[in-house]
Amino acid sequence: MRLALTAGTRDGEHVPDPSALLDAFGRHLALQRGLSEHTVRGYLSDVRSLLDTLREDDGAVDLARLDLTALRAWLAGQAREGRSRSTLARRAAAARTFCSWAVRQGHLAEDVGARLQSPRADKRVPQVLAVDEATVLLDLTAQVADDGDPLHLRDWAVLEMLYATGVRVAELVGMDLAAVDRRERTVRVLGKGGTERVVPFGVPADRALAEWLQRGRPELVTPTSPPALFLGARGGRLGVRAVRERVHGLTALAGVRDMSPHGLRHSAATHLLAGGSDLRTVQEVLGHASLATTQRYTHVTPERLRAAYTQAHPRA
């Protein structure tokens, strides 16, 4: 449904309250574009920030002021606040998507975001754990779980699965019990855009999962609990923020470099390539739409590439 906008003093449209506009945009992103809940939240936050720069004294948003100059000024302000290049690239993408949608809905006369350029996302791979650090972290997590506390058993299984599968944290907390096949040691993952993939995991992760499912989860489940693989302390589905907090806390306790769940994903990809996996396999495991995204990991293991070159090239 078209949002009714009131005419302002300029030749354009004023939005007294942009909430309805943002709600409609969010529904478009989720239902028509098929973006994940996490991505939708990020895009809405970005566009809300953009619209705030267009507010008049009366608090209304003046869409007539939204032009290429305004978009560039907004991005420049984000850069001055110290946002990373990858964040700026995402915010520019959100602005372009919003402008394109707003034109189709009749809220903008022209697609002012079509010519908006943004810094290239930082292609460097974030800091990752060394293999021995990953071992120390997971051994420590298993030792903490020896007390049988259901939350500690859950944390052990969570970290093992993050590192074993390389899944995104949102994908992990979105898993249901039916997604896991322990006989085959695989898990069905619902990724970005509703795409589905099957990812294997190893014996250590399976052992942690078994302990969680047999001893930990039954202690937390309630009559209203969802069929989620991982539960929070009150029996609801485990949240992304809680996983981040536990990963940061356990890496500190283990005395290894600080990691986020995404850092464990990067570590898994790096160690797969270092161990001899080909790029196509790692692409499938990580759920990357483009092989170019996976290729950024190759520079992490130059010794492996040099060895492969020496072995394969006739004039090496």
Outline the structure in words.
Helices cover 53% and strands 6% of the residues. It is mainly α and 316 residues long. The strands form 2 sheets. It has a 3-stranded antiparallel sheet, with no helix packed on it. Strands 4-5-6 form a 3-stranded antiparallel sheet. A hairpin with a 4-residue loop joins strand 4 (180-181) and strand 5 (186-190). The longest helix is centred in the N-terminal third of the chain and has 20 residues, at 85-104. It starts with 5 loop residues before the first strand and ends with a helix.
**At the fourth CATH level, what is the homologous superfamily of the largest domain?**
Intergrase catalytic core
Q: What share of residues are in beta strands?
A: 5-15%
Q: What is the gyration radius calculated from CA atoms?
A: 23 Å
Count the helices. How many? 13
Main beta-sheet annotation: 3 strands, antiparallel
Q: Cα distance, first to last residue? A: 65 Å
Gist?
53% of the residues lie in helices and 6% in strands.
Write the layout of secondary structure elements.
Elements lengths: L5 E2 L5 E3 L3 H14 L4 H16 L8 E2 L5 H13 L4 H20 L26 H14 L5 H16 L3 H5 L6 E2 L4 E5 L5 E5 L2 H18 L19 H15 L6 H14 L4 H8 L4 H5 L6 H11 L4
Antiparallel strand pairs: 1-2, 2-3, 4-5, 5-6
Q: Which keywords apply here?
A:
hpI Integrase, Chain A, disordered N terminus, 2 domains, DNA polymerase, domain 1, 316 residues, mainly alpha, 6% strand, 3-stranded antiparallel sheet, 13 helices
